[in-house]
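Worked Example 4.2. Consider the chain below.
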Amino acid sequence: MKKLIKIMIVCLPLMMTACEEEKQESNKSLENKTNPALTAGESCQNAAGKWFIKELVDASGCDEGQKKVEINTLMKQTGCQAVLTIPGLESSIAFKGVVNGTQIYLKGTYQDSGTITKELFLTIEGQTLTGTAKWKYTDPTGLYSCKGTSKVNGQKR
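Applying the procedure from the previous section yields the following structure tokens:
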């Protein structure tokens, strides 16, 4: 009986971990099927081209207040898959994602005195982009991080 209890004590946490991992995988699969931001649509607006983006960044969560950013970008699109590139002096920054109808979801990570991971949620209407972004900054040590949001507007060039 003691041997059976020892086996149960060792095996039960392992089984619970395996069940939790299976549940998480199942949830990810379901999320990918139901979240339109994560899957390309059957029909999608053509967003390809050069875009001039204006972004009002709210970095108050990082004790930096608000700032305006204006930048030229290039959106490439293959089917409903999209890549928004921001040219840089040392290297370019790329946000990859999907177009679903008039909705665009993009995500990317880049370096700026630390690591910034950013998600863009945009709507395209003709020659105009509007939407929001959420981002997270992590310092090079990984000990400090903060989050912020942005309002995004773009005009096709």
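Residues 82 and 97 are 5 Å apart (CA to CA). The domain at 49-156 is CATH 2.40.128.30 (Lipocalin). Compare this with Example 4.1 before moving on.
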